[in-house]
Specification:
The chain is an alpha+beta fold and 462 residues long. It has helices spanning 7-12, 45-56, 96-104, 136-149, 169-172, 175-181, 188-195, 206-210, 215-223, 233-242, 299-305, 371-388, 413-417, 420-425, 445-461, and strands at residues 36-41, 61-64, 76-78, 84-86, 92-93, 109-111, 118-123, 128-129, 225-228, 246-247, 250-258, 261-268, 273-283, 309-319, 327-331, 346-351, 360-365, 397-403, 407-410, 433-435. The radius of gyration is 22 Å and the shape is globular. Residues 1-21 form the signal peptide.
Length: 462
């Protein structure tokens, strides 16, 4: 997920080469035997993209979305004066696939550029200023070494979880081991900037940091990002305008699947139910046991989907905080060892996005960390800064808030080693059901769209 852009964005360009990818083509042969060709579960970045692509090819598509709008992790706060703050996804890779999708929807874009004037390092546990964990030049040089070290994992270059057999030990061991073995301590703060959603990342399998900031992501930093001129949500507002069948505030309560199609019972927030029949089902949200309640899961599906752990992730826009405009305030804890990383739960960053008086923030916690917990953490962090006299904190108010949980879907090192992802990918096409989204590919829109194109091609083949 592209949640933040910083000074790293502009300076990395001096040191590293560029790589991009191209989209797949899809056959358009159509066969009508049920009311819908494809039912898509989830209208986030992946689901909305798939729906537009399929509808453009003459497919009869229906999207089931539990929220009141499309876009998933895209959140845009619009102010009365016409300005806006993107406090979820802030941009997508500036590549051919992204530009093509923007153009299809008639959405004008511009390049994403850093909007801040400097970075402060603050220990959020005390509210006091802290030293920078590493100099910028040292960090960038370490990034070059990090990218070189990633060459041993070419199978990760598209953000997929398709591993050789046996699975390389380095990807399921803790990131801490990979860092120590390759003398990459100086790159830790930069990894955390992009991969903070992993949580206590040094203790987690290295795979999940690689999938948040690996070769394709570094290459994308070089190529830059684009964003709609009027905020990221404009992309999904435009998608909603062209899609013919989207059922908002609706979820599946019963699902029967077979090789000849699927029959779903869906329920609106108001309690009304409807039956949907489709030739194929495309699941784009994380396939957790909770989200698939009411599905006729096989023993294999139940075994796989019950193994997930994840991070709860929240985003917010604040006002009247007293944080100076133009500053990034990075959470830094000098007592935790290399990188000075905060420990969960934490606010990773208070980020200026170019709109005076309205910084945004990102909060990461374990699976039991609630939205109310996140809001309380924001308030207590500001209170500690006020007590310490670090900033002239006033009366902070959360003016926009969103829950992006679950995210950073993970399994144990033992599961990675024993072939969990091989088994997961083998589910594609079983009983007319296909999958895409952040559990099957790195959670960055452009990578997700490219992977989704390959799944749509498989669906066309039956």
């Amino acid at each position: 997920m592209i949640y933040s852009i910083s000074l790293y964005y502009s300076l990395i360009l001096l040191l590293l080469p560029l790589a991009t990818g191209l989209p797949s083509s899809i056959n358009t042969t159509t066969k009508h035997t049920k009311p819908y060709d494809v039912c898509i579960l989830g209208g986030g970045a992946t689901g909305a993209y798939a729906a537009v692509r399929l509808q453009d090819r003459g497919k009869r598509v229906v999207v089931i979305e539990q929220n009141s709008q499309l876009g998933g992790h895209t959140e845009t706060y619009y102010l009365p004066n016409g300005s806006h703050v993107d406090y979820g996804v802030q941009g997508v890779f500036d590549d051919q696939l992204s530009r093509k999708f923007f153009s299809r929807l008639g959405v004008k874009w511009h390049r994403v550029l850093p909007s801040f004037k400097g970075e402060d390092f603050v220990d959020f546990t005390t509210g006091r200023m802290a030293e920078s964990p590493v100099g910028l030049v040292q960090s960038l040089l370490a990034l070059v070494r990090y990218r070189v070290a990633l060459r041993q994992f070419p199978f990760l270059n598209k953000g997929l979880y398709e591993f050789p057999d046996p699975v390389p030990e380095a990807i399921f061991r803790p990131l801490r081991d990979f860092v120590e073995e390759n003398s990459l301590e100086d790159v830790i703060p930069m990894l955390f900037f992009w991969a903070h959603g992993v949580g206590n990342m040094l203790d987690m399998p290295a795979l999940y940091t690689f999938q948040n900031f690996g070769v394709p992501h570094i290459s994308a930093v070089l190529g830059g990002y684009i964003t709609p001129e009027k905020g990221m949500y404009e992309l999904y507002r435009a998608a909603a305008a062209v899609l013919l069948n989207v059922r908002y505030q609706t979820q599946v309560v019963d699902a029967k699947r077979s090789d000849s199609g699927v029959t779903l019972t869906v329920q609106h927030l108001n309690g009304t139910q409807a039956t949907i029949e489709a030739e194929q089902l495309l699941v784009t949200h994380p396939p957790t046991m909770e989200k698939l309640r009411g599905f006729d899961l096989t023993s294999e599906e139940s075994d796989l989907f019950s193994r997930w752990s994840w991070r709860n992730y929240y985003v917010a826009v604040t006002s009247n905080s007293g944080i100076p405009d133009g500053r990034y305030v990075t959470n830094t804890n000098p007592r935790t060892g290399p990188g000075f990383l905060p420990e969960m739960p934490f606010e990773s960053l208070i980020q200026y996005m170019g709109v005076p008086g309205h910084p945004n923030t990102k909060i990461v916690g374990p699976m039991n960390f609630t939205a109310e917990d996140a809001k309380q953490l924001i308030g207590s962090d500001f209170a500690r800064m006020k007590t310490a006299g670090t900033y002239s904190i006033r009366e902070p108010e959360v003016v926009a808030f969103a829950n992006h949980s679950p995210t950073t879907m993970m399994v144990s090192p033992e599961d990675i080693q024993s072939g969990f992802y091989r088994r997961l990918y083998a589910l594609q096409g079983q009983r007319s059901t296909f999958y895409t989204g952040l559990t099957f590919c790195s959670d960055y829109s452009s990578l997700l769209w490219a992977f989704t194109d390959t799944i749509l091609e498989r669906m066309q083949q039956g």
